[in-house]
Design a protein that fits this description.
The complex is a heterotrimer of chains A (173), B (638) and C (101). With 638 residues, chain B is mainly α. Among the domains of chain B are: 554-599; 607-638. In chain B, 73% of the residues lie in helices and 4% in strands. In chain B, the strands form 2 sheets. In chain B, strands 1-2 form a two-stranded antiparallel ribbon. In chain B, strands 3-4 form a two-stranded antiparallel ribbon. In chain B, a hairpin with a 2-residue loop joins strand 1 (64-74) and strand 2 (77-85). In chain B, helix 2 runs parallel beside helix 4 and helix 6 (165-196) runs antiparallel to helix 8. Chain B is globular and about 120 Å long. Chain C has a single domain (5-88), classed as Helix Hairpins, CATH 1.10.287.3510. Chain C has helices spanning 5-25, 29-54, 58-85. Chain C starts with a helix and ends in a 16-residue tail after the last helix. The chains are: A mainly alpha (173), B mainly alpha (638), C mainly alpha (101). Chains in contact: A-B, A-C, B-C.
């Protein structure tokens, strides 16, 4: 029962804050709203017995990434959304069609699934512990692990280069 | 021992040619002479040594093969880089290096003022090497290599003065026709390889009889070999390149287009006589082609005004005699004539070269006359050569030609036909050669005299002319009628004896000598009456027989016929291809492809708006479509 | 597992749709990136849900990988936004169309 309540709270929170992310005109508010979504999702992770993932979600996402967003928003300053007519207005129809199609697809797929061993899984499990995740990373998913580290390296180097060119473009050293 | 020396003979001109070719810049003339002439002298000396070495052996112990290394070994067929030293190849070696040395010596002065002195000697040495490779090769493979190299060297030397468009055109013509011959020779080698499984001379000739006398295979081999021989030796209908080849420097004409290269066909047939002995039809075809060539070329030579072209057509005619002889099976007579011809034709060309040099590149007989006062050496060389080629008793040409004709008379109906043609040819030969002699060296000087006076040659040019002049007298004494047959005896181990081999007999010799001497003297007499005694008579008689003479003047219009049959249709076809087929076909395919790709690209490009959100729309649409389809499938399935 | 997996998946789907709408509606590049984060989170919810369903750590492992990729993407994306828009007055992705074909 408690699980269902928690799920309901978290789901409503995620969707509500998510709506805020999408529809707030002000970028700063949207970013703060994203924090709410992320925390709600972290709550879901805990319900799903994935405490480590939840912790990472809070620390990396809510902590690091959103903070970076806020930095950039503050750096670029207040430059309200443009008011010129949207050249892609005609395409919005396609977008909505897409969303509807996707929704139909998802609904059909979800409602059609009958093989979920919903009650088979034990209430307590150790798949979410750091130990088991670390074990999985270094045994079954070593390649993914290495690729991940490589992606991080590339991202770091790329960020440095972008920053350099930005500094030079602004007349700095 | 003999083979080791022969290897050196072969390699020395190659080395000096490479050194000269690779020399940076233009070396001093002394260095070029030392390398270019010295190498040929070494080759000649060693050839003589080989010859003396073979003389010391018994007649049946004069054939040696030597293999440097195995070149190709596949499927049971071995091709060695090997040479064959036997009486035939030694005879050719002596002619090539001996006459070649004299002509190189002559070139030292003749080419003195040319800015490409080094290139000339490098090419000449390359030619001597190629020709030696041709005659020394121990199998068909290297025969073809030498054969092709000779064609290349000939091309380089005909086109030596490459600033002249005519020289370049002549070089191309010679090369193309020579390649036709190369193809024939290569096909013959393929056929031999297929039928006999070997390219080695010894094995091929030994196995030839296994193919069966007069079989189609032997006939095919012989005719393909003859295509090669006819192209190299300028026989009808592949003779048209030789007169044009006179665009090259005169020493080149003397060495390549008179003494050595054009006789390669004769050598080839003698070398491959094992095949020709087996097929009387092939032999007769060769002989008839030779006979036609000798008569046709002699008539053309009558009309030429360019001094070198007279000699060129005379060469075609004389080589026709040799081809006729070897076609009939008179191999020794053919080789004897080859040797004698090398002497007297080289003498004639070199004497003509002296005249041309003295008159500052004047080649027309119309602007010559009375030269004997100025150019004693050339007069001697030209006179000796003319007497020899006309067949005046005592000179080399007399013995050689009579040997050929006396042998031919024993050759059945075809032989008699050839004899008649040969006798007619002898008359014409005497006529056109003495026409040249009388018009150039006798009679009045051209109007206005010589400005400046012709200058006599120095010793570089004089010595070869004199030596070759003497050789055209004494060179024939190696083989005299009625029993003194040094050449035949020397070549006996190669040619062998058999029903297919023709030799003169006493009766035929007597008949031939009487008739041919009458013909030769008649020809000389007619030439004197027409051109020597009264120079005005030629002009008075100019109106006679204009039509036939025009045909002869145009060399029986072979070039025109080739133009009409091959060149023009080819050009028209190319024109149609270019204007009709090509734009629609290959070019159309290409432009069509380009237009299609460009159009498709324009279509696809419009989707690349550069707007990230538009891409997102497309992506969403795709996912949605996939989702709808999946939903429908799921709905239908459940 | 008292809440059925279908509920998680429907939530995931709803979040994804929200993100998509954001990507398509907003012209501010920062908002675009935020919406993408939303979509990535939707994916993560599904992954962790399946991990719970099958009692297998692989789902969590991939959720972590997705987070890392998201972090890298944000770093580069924000770097680009800063580099491009520091000199312009308006924040409009539609102006970033110099790669038009």
């Amino acid at each position: 029962m408690g699980e269902k309540v928690t799920f309901a709270v978290a789901a409503i929170g995620a969707l509500g804050f998510g709506t805020g992310v999408v529809f707030f005109r002000d970028a700063f508010r949207a970013a703060v709203s994203l924090i709410g979504t992320l925390l709600s999702v972290a709550l879901l992770f805990i319900v799903l017995l994935a405490p480590f993932a939840a912790a990472v979600q809070v620390i990396v996402y809510a902590g690091a990434i959103v903070v970076m967003f806020l930095f950039v928003i503050a750096y670029l300053g207040e430059r309200g959304e443009v008011t010129t007519p949207d050249r892609l207005d005609r395409w919005q129809v396609i977008g909505w069609l897409g969303v509807i199609g996707l929704g139909a697809f998802g609904a059909v797929a979800v409602l059609d699934s009958s093989s979920a061993p919903a009650d088979a899984a034990p209430a307590t499990t150790d798949v979410g512990t750091p130990a088991s995740i670390g074990d999985a990373f270094l045994s079954d998913h070593l390649l993914a692990f290495e690729v991940t580290s490589l992606i991080l390296l590339v991202a770091a180097v790329g960020a440095v280069i972008l920053a350099r060119s930005a500094v030079q473009g602004a007349g700095g050293r | 021992m003999a083979t080791a020396l022969a290897w050196i003979v072969l390699v020395v001109p190659l080395i000096s040619g490479i050194v000269l070719a690779g020399w940076p810049g233009e070396p001093p003339h002394a260095v070029t002479r030392l390398l270019g002439i010295g190498s040929i002298l070494i080759s000649f000396a060693l050839s003589v040594a080989v010859f003396i070495g073979l003389l010391g052996n018994a007649a049946d112990d004069r054939s040696f093969t030597s293999s440097a290394f195995e070149w190709i070994s596949i499927a049971g067929t071995d091709v060695d880089l090997s040479i064959l030293v036997d009486p035939l190849s030694v005879m050719m070696m002596l002619i090539i290096t001996g006459v070649g040395f004299l002509i190189h010596l002559y070139s030292a002065e003749y080419m003195e003022h040319d800015r490409d002195y080094r290139r000339f000697f490098a090419s000449m040495n390359l030619f001597v090497f190629s020709m030696l490779l041709l005659v020394l090769a121990g199998n068909f493979f290297f025969l073809i290599v030498g054969w092709a190299f000779v064609g290349l060297a000939s091309y380089l030397l005909i086109g030596f003065w490459y600033e002249r468009p005519t020289a370049v055109a002549a070089a191309k013509k010679a090369f193309v026709i020579n390649v036709i011959g190369d193809v024939g020779l290569v096909l013959a080698a393929f056929l031999i390889l297929r039928e006999l499984g070997t390219l080695d001379y010894g094995e091929a000739f030994a196995g030839a009889s296994g193919l069966g006398a007069n079989s189609g295979t032997v006939l095919a081999i012989c005719l393909l070999l003859f295509v090669g021989a006819a192209a190299k030796s300028a026989q009808v209908p592949l003779h048209t390149w030789l007169p044009d080849a006179m665009e090259g420097p005169t020493p080149v004409s003397a060495l390549i287009h008179a003494a050595t290269m054009v006789t390669a066909g004769v050598y080839l047939i003698v070398r491959c006589h094992a095949f020709f002995d087996l097929s009387w039809l092939a032999g007769d075809i060769v002989a008839v082609v030779g006979a036609i060539t000798l008569l046709m070329a002699a008539t053309v030579a009558l009309q030429q005004v360019d001094i070198k072209r007279v000699l060129a057509w005379s060469t075609v005619s004389q080589v026709g005699y040799m081809i006729m002889a070897v076609g009939l099976g008179a191999y020794a007579s053919g080789m004897f004539m080859l040797m004698a011809h090398a002497f007297y034709k080289a003498a004639l060309f070199l004497a003509a070269g002296v005249v041309i040099h003295a008159l500052h590149d004047e080649q027309s007989l119309d602007r010559m006359g009375g030269l004997r006062k100025y150019l004693r050496v050339a007069y001697f060389g030209m006179g000796a050569g003319c007497l020899a080629i006309a067949g005046v008793p005592g000179f080399a040409g007399f013995f050689a030609k009579d040997d050929v004709l006396a042998s031919a008379l024993n050759g059945g109906a075809i032989g008699v036909f050839c004899w008649v043609v040969g006798i007619l040819g002898a008359f014409l030969t005497a006529l056109y050669m003495f026409r040249l002699l009388f018009r150039a060296f006798f009679g009045p000087e051209p109007a206005g005299g010589y400005q400046p006076a012709p200058h006599p040659s120095r010793w570089w040019m004089s010595v070869p002319v004199v030596v070759l002049g003497i050789l055209s007298i004494v060179g024939g004494w190696l083989q005299l009628p009625f029993g003194w047959t040094e050449i035949s005896d020397w070549l006996l181990p190669v040619t062998g004896e058999g029903p297919a081999i023709l030799e003169p007999t006493h009766a035929t010799e007597v008949v031939t000598i009487i008739v041919s001497v009458v013909m030769a003297l008649g020809g000389i007499g007619l030439a004197w009456w027409l051109f020597g005694a009264d120079p005005e008579r030629r002009i008075r008689l100019a109106a006679i027989a204009r039509g036939p003479r025009a045909v002869m003047d145009d060399a029986w219009r072979f070039d025109e016929a080739y133009d009409d049959v091959f060149v023009e249709p080819g050009r028209e076809m190319a024109d149609v291809m270019l204007t009709r087929v090509e734009p629609a076909g290959p070019q159309g395919i290409i432009t069509g492809t380009v237009a299609f790709v460009r159009g498709a690209a324009r279509l696809v490009r419009s989707s690349q708006s550069g707007m990230v959100r538009a891409y997102a729309f497309w992506m969403v649409l795709g996912i949605a479509l996939a989702g709808i389809v999946a939903a429908l499938i799921a709905a239908g399935g459940s | 597992m008292n809440v059925p997996i279908e509920a998680y998946l429907m939530l995931s789907l709803a979040l994804l749709a929200l993100g998509l709408v954001g990507v398509m509606r907003r012209r501010n590049p920062l908002m675009l990136l935020l919406s993408v984060e939303l979509m990535l989170n939707a994916g993560n919810v599904s992954l962790i849900g399946f991990s719970r369903l099958w009692d297998d750590p692989s789902g969590q492992v991939f959720a972590l990988v997705v987070m890392v990729v998201a972090a890298a993407e944000v770093v580069i994306g924000l770097g680009l936004v800063v580099a491009i828009f520091r000199s312009r007055t308006r924040l409009d992705v539609d102006e970033m169309s110099s790669m038009r074909g």
